[in-house]
Amino acid sequence: MSNFMRARFLIIFLILNLFAVSCSDDDDEIEEPIPEQNTEIQDYIWQGMNLWYFWQADVPNLGDNKFTTTEAYENFLKTEEDPEDFFENLIFDKTNTDKWSWIVDDYIELENSFQGISKSNGVEYGLVLLPNNDIYGWVRYILPNSDASNKPIKRGDLFTKVNGTQLTLDNYRTLLFGANDTYTLSLAKIENNTIVPTNVDVALTQVAYTENPVFIKNVFAVAGKKIGYLMYNGFTSSFDNQLNDAFLLFKNEGITDLVLDVRYNPGGSVRTAVSLAGMITGQFKNQLFTKERWNNKIQAEFEKNYPDFLVNNFTDKLGNGNLINSLNLNKLHVITSRSSASASELVISGLQPYIAVKLVGDKTVGKYVASITLYDSEDFGRQGANPNHKYAMQPIVLEEINKVGGSSKGGLIPDITLREDHANLGVLGDVSEPLLNAAISDITGLPRKVQRADKMVYEYLTDSKMMTPTGDNMYIEKKDLGRILSEKKFFVPVK
Questions:
Q1: Domain 117-210, what fold?
Q2: Interacting residues of 352 by C-beta distance below 8 A, sequence separation 6+
Q3: DSSP category for residue 331
Q4: Cα–Cα dist 448/438, whole Å
Q5: C-alpha dihedral (243, 275, 321, 268), degrees to nearest 10
Q6: Is CATH 2.40.50.140 the classification given to domain 214-451+468-487?
Q7: What residues contact 390, with CB distance under 8 A and at least 6 apart?
Q8: Angle at CA 455, nearest 5°, toward 185 and 458?
Q9: Over the chain, what is the mean pLDDT?
Q10: What is the pLDDT of residues 240-272, one digit of tens each?
Q11: Residues 40, 86: contact at Cβ < 8 Å?
């Protein structure tokens, strides 16, 4: 429904209501008219998905010739009263293919999450599913200066209950990610491959928190090697300067090798991923890092008018223009896990045709596609967004392909497979931490520290970062699309 149609509908609706009131008799019972379903949000959803969605051609209800009349289109918009249900019905093969597109009802919260701002109590954790459908969580790390940083909870602690209720597959979303900002975790530990309670309860409160993704940076001198170690937990562009500073440290220390730890990194900004690749290398300036493939309509438009927009080249500058601190390395070790996704995988995939990249840990997620934020405005940009609501969509719009046509689709397989042992996690950033130690052993040739393997049978389920508004999203930032959106010349409603 066009803006004109929306305004016309509102005027008619108001007139009808005024007419009903003015013509009524005070002594008669007034029968309220049944309000027409407001479909302006559904209209915005369909228009945006029809134009931008990567799998648009595979969804019959998004077809360019789906509707032959305005009435047919308007009737379709009324098929779901809830905008989120309407959006979900337009997703292609959600179970197997598009697991990542989503919609939010508050784009302010979404924008904050892109800058690393979200509600947090400071406990970052993973969740695993046991054969009986019970769940336990394990603390990966504690955020500094958070509520949890002042509580008796630390890396390696397990928890099985929230507010006294056992976590299960049926209730974990409500208990951990529901509306309550305060809850109590009941801690546990592993003894003889069995989870036993410690009888310690920890009360935690979530508040707005800004996370610096540059979590640990160290330099180790081992067996004649100078090894840099970076634990990087999110591709948050507002912290690009801090990331660049970490590489200045590595550069000044003259490191010979680098271990990049993205085991808990679900991804983020594509631009930051390109910058990180330039920090690791530097010798490939202006060469192809990755190329993009959009849906047929957008791809044709970009190829015709904006061909440079389809490529991400290695660069020596950050998005803010600051020079990148490059190491000119020709090899890299990366620590990965089942939580390493999107932009983390993009860095690995993009570098593989150029330098030797060795993975240590577990298979990655396999998130090879990226999204953009679409607002309810004429060109789907932030400016001029409909003031009647705060819905925004984050649909998948492109796939990233490296120089030789490869991607992270299906997940990246480690060269050295090593699952984190929940009974023996070690201290992050310490040379004896099992995964870091395995990487250092491969670099130096020294024997690897023996890890005590737990024999718990479990299945990785999800983690705290995956349940934030951005999840494992890889996204093109708004200002990267600014010059395209400003043209507006091919934003023509199709119906």
A1: Pdz3 Domain (2.30.42)
A2: 402, 406
A3: E
A4: 6
A5: -80
A6: no
A7: 105, 106, 107, 108
A8: 55
A9: 88
A10: 999 999 999 999 999 999 999 999 999 999 999
A11: no
